[in-house]
UniProtKB/TrEMBL annotation:
Residues annotated as signal peptide: none
Source taxonomy: Bacteria, Pseudomonadati, Pseudomonadota, Gammaproteobacteria, Pseudomonadales
Function: May be involved in recombination.
Superkingdom classification of source: Bacteria
Entry annotated with the keyword Cytoplasm: yes
Family stated for the protein in its record: Belongs to the RdgC family.
Name of the protein: Recombination-associated protein RdgC
Main location: cytoplasm
Compartment(s) of residence: Cytoplasm, Nucleoid
Keywords recorded for this protein, A-Z: Cytoplasm, DNA recombination
Amino acid sequence: MWFRNLLLYRFSQPTPFSETELLEALEQKPSRPCASQETHTLGWTTPYGRHSENRLESSNGYWLIAMRKEERILPGSVIKEALAEKVEEIENRDARKVYKKERDTLKDEIIMSLLPRAFTRTQTTYACLCPAEGWIAVDSSSHKRAEDLLSLLRECTGTLPVRPLNVKTAPAACMTQWVKEGTAPEQLVIGDECELRDTSEDGGVVRCKRQDLASDEIQLHLSAGKQVSQLALQWQEKLSFSLDDKLTVKRLKFEDLLRDEADDNAGDDMASQLDASFSIMSSTLSELIPALANALGGEDIPQGI
């Protein structure tokens, strides 16, 4: 139940649905397997898997939802090979050239013929909503997966006035300054991993692991104009993560202090253990999100919102 990544979004107006309304909306679009001619399906599943029948889990004002995607796997190499064989067959048979428009039509026909025999795979993407504080945290580092979830949620609820969380100072500028000074604000502690990127068009990238970021070597790169594009951080001895210049939180790890607290609060069954973990995780995120925004110069809220 512990999120591993975070993409953060902010409601631009009060949350436009209640818990009951959200649950009714999720039940309109349950997850289902792909039909024979479908490339993929999107729907809502139970966040606790087989340990609950609810498509919405609620704890202390936080809501947990889960989107399940099933897609058919058609390797590009298989399609390319089948298309090449079909084109060669037509050109040899009819003694003519097959041009792009016809190639595209043939490609679509090949995909449709292969789909029923293709293997399927599933992905589940989780999101935590805090209506009282007006944010959504998606457990993914992929903006495409997060947008799929938000689009499906918007489709089901009829409205979803959200935007990515924005800050007043560019994360790269802040992280570069922190590494130069050897300290970060808001109880953040600099770790031993970073990515340095040259700001020129064809600039290089330096990735450091298990490195003293206060060393002369790192400082020399910064003096030469490189910026920190990704940085390992710890926060309040509760969390460790990597923050990048797009404000994406990756490799999020909740430390043993929080996991032990969740274990102490949980009952004997798996559902109560998952619920305890979700409760601790969501309340911790409520502390982290404003602290992170403040460390990056404060949240940038558009005028009129």
